[in-house]
Design goal:
Elements lengths: L9 H48 L12
Amino acid sequence: MKNPWTKKNPFMSMWLSGANAVAGSVRGHATAAVKRESATAVRKGNKQVVDFWTSALTPPKATKRKKRR
């Protein structure tokens, strides 16, 4: 006699297939969000470095003096 626990279950197969599709979609959305966040962080870091060095290498602006009356 065959073991009924080893028999294929079409409903379980459909349920697992649907769960796998949802998990793949969630994984894709999460991966895209992480890539966006890391790209934003790198871009902000690069901007800070460039701003720091450009302000360090340019001479300071002359301050305007108030006219005395």
